[in-house]
Amino acid sequence: MSQLTDAFARKFYYLRLSITDVCNFRCTYCLPDGYRPDGAGQRGFLSLEEIRRVSRAFAELGTEKVRLTGGEPTLRRDFVDIIAAVRENPAIRALAVTTNGYRMARDVARWREAGLTSLNVSVDSLDARQFHAITGQDKFRLVMDGIDAAFACGFSRVKVNTVLMRGVNDSSLNSFLAWIRRRPIQLRFIELMETGEGGELFRQRHVAGTEIRQRLLQQGWLRQPRGLSDGPAQVFSHPDYQGEIGLIMPYEKDFCLSCNRLRVSAVGNLHLCLFGEQGVPLRDLLTDDRQLDALKSRIAGGLAQKKQTHGLHEGNSGMTPNLAFIGG
Ligand code: SAM
Ligand code: SF4
């Protein structure tokens, strides 16, 4: 039972834990100039022991699902140990990662052995040249091999994240659909979000999720009822397709009503919203095991400050310069 409830009676079973800001890709909508150290990581990113403590505190507060994210989480050399450390908590039944897929072909079987239960891989184009243009890395084949490797080592389903951008890859909707016809992939279209550094790109490239939904409904896709513990994705299925579509539409009215997640940044701040303010520092309570109770109180207390909704509609993206900074 979650002890994490906010002033609007939302319960929080889900933690998104960023373990690094570093990334080796340069996605146009996220880190167009690549990762640049800015001093935020001066003390370094959370250590394995700090990750062990923070996940234990969340587990004792009722967290059932953790997602490791970044930056690119799989670039950490101790990534396998991190998976095992989070899974030491029996309460955490699901452990996912969001990755650009760069290390998957090589390492995914080891992640699964260590306790990873699901994967989201970002793929913004099925055309190798366009993939290169969007991500700054000529790694399309490697990422596709990674997805095959995930299925081969026993993941029965893989989620793929795609950001559609006007005039870039929005005309490829039908190729994406053809791709999941015979593959058990949940393809999740994430509506481009405005960030502190991405205002201009947003104005040029934003495609409304409602537009994509309309196109899906016209092609016979059917909206699935939401499960209680589901996140904010709207899921669609089609009798002719093995794959599913998830639509993540942060600009839709009431998007925040179903919010069930909290975030901890790679430097150990609790963020109540992806687009919130500076966050509640936790790191001073992560230095040894004796501070577990104080840590739990600070997390639960911080939640009282959570606002009902983000300010994106008013063009207010909080202090989030890009999503690599807080883990998307
Ligand atoms: N590097 C990993 C990856 O790309 O999957 C994990 C971190 S990344 C910040 C997490 C997700 O956020 C990715 O699927 C990415 O496409 C998405 N993302 C980043 N910036 C975004 C933006 N401005 N709007 C919408 N989605 C964004
Ligand atoms: Fe890196 Fe992920 Fe951001 Fe792309 S979306 S630059 S892979 S953190």
From TrEMBL:
Q: Where does [4Fe-4S] cluster 1 bind?
A: 23, 27, 30
Q: Which residues form the Radical SAM core domain?
A: 7-223
Q: Which family does it belong to?
A: Belongs to the radical SAM superfamily. MoaA family.
Q: What is its EC number?
A: 4.1.99.22
Lyase as UniProt keyword: yes
Q: What pathway or pathways are given for this protein in its record? A: Cofactor biosynthesis; molybdopterin biosynthesis
Q: Which SUPFAM superfamilies does its entry note? A: Radical SAM enzymes
Q: What protein name applies here?
A: GTP 3',8-cyclase
According to the record's subunit comment, the protein's assembly and interactions are: Monomer and homodimer.
State where [4Fe-4S] cluster 2 binds. Answer: 256, 259, 273
Question: What's a BP term from Gene Ontology annotated to this protein?
Answer: Mo-molybdopterin cofactor biosynthetic process
- What is the required cofactor set for this protein? [4Fe-4S] cluster
Its top-level enzyme class, in one word, is lyase
Query: What is known about what this protein does?
Result: Catalyzes the cyclization of GTP to (8S)-3',8-cyclo-7,8-dihydroguanosine 5'-triphosphate.
Q: Where does S-adenosyl-L-methionine bind?
A: 29, 71, 122, 193
